[in-house]
Amino acid sequence: MTTAPSHSPDAARDAAAYWFARVHSGKFTAAERERFEQWRRADSGNEREYRAIDEIWQATRLLPEDDLRELLEAPEPASARGRNARRRWLIGASAVCGIAVVGGALTHGRILDMLETPLHEARYVTARGEQRSERQPDGSVIQMNVSTDLVVRYYAKRRSVELASGEATFEVAGNAERPFFVEAGSVSVRVTGTVFNVRRDEERVAVAVQSGSVEVSSGRWWNRERAMLTAGMMARSQADRTLSVETGDVSAVTAWRQGKVVFQDQPLEDMVREMNRYLSRPIHLADSKLKRLRMAGVFGIEDGEAFLQALQNSLPITVQRRPDGGADLSLQR
């Protein structure tokens, strides 16, 4: 088993390449994410270098995948041998952009747009139990659920949101000339104007469309899956980056916007995990046998007492109060 180094390179550009490789490695730990965010906040130059690499990578998505794979798998020049893998990757990504210009996939102006300083940039973070709504300069509204961390960047030709964690509903002002992107790990959502919800739990991402349509893509660059979603459709990307699409009750998924959570014949383990996102004093399952029990219901996200009472009324459960104000659930004997 291999582990990531405990430190990143000193030079901002090398460090940016290092962190980009770690973020997209599929083995990015919570501890690394904390160090990564500290590095980004420590100096504006760090953030600028990382964003430049990320925008180059976004540009490569416009190339045909076969061409991109061939370029990145080609033998490296002698001058590059002996350098670390992160530096080789950065050189390769830059070369991709140059070939894209020559091949007509990107114009020179388009690449400059992608590498320019944002016209608008803001980071929003909500704590446990906190929800908030933020209106953007174009009139788009981002409503954030609890424990959410995202960054908004507006450029001349596009609007971008990086969802690091949590959940948000996006009411996007229509503008076909300035598409709106949400990036959540390996998942990318592209729209021009619509209302949709994105939730990210580590590398698991769920997208639900309330109105309009969105394009969802997921997976590594050489094997990305794509799906068009319209109102009432949902897509889920698992940790292995597989993408599944289904129709579903989007109003239930977004019930948190009205202060509710909806359960539809779900395992008790999942129900407790979901309620604990909102409760200041968490509920614990003290008996593993409880995981098999299932229930349905609609509950207020801040009404833990009503939730516990409903469990006792519907399931063979005993509730034991803890000194910290939380509750332990066990099976009735």
From TrEMBL:
Stored Gene3D superfamilies? 2.60.120.1440, 3.55.50.30
Query: By its UniProt entry, which InterPro entries does this protein fall under?
Result: FecR, FecR_C, FecR_N, Ferrdict_sens_TM
* Organism placement in taxonomy: Bacteria, Pseudomonadati, Pseudomonadota, Betaproteobacteria, Burkholderiales
Per UniProt, residues of the Protein FecR C-terminal domain are 261-320
Say which domain of life the source belongs to. Bacteria
Residues passing through the membrane, by range:
89-107
Look up and give the organism this protein is from: Achromobacter veterisilvae
Boundaries of each FecR N-terminal domain copy?
Answer: 14-53
Identify the keywords attached in UniProt to this record, alphabetized.
Membrane, Transmembrane, Transmembrane helix
Please give one Gene Ontology molecular function term for this protein. Answer: sigma factor antagonist activity
> FecR protein domain location, by residue?
123-215
| Listed name of the protein | Fec operon regulator FecR
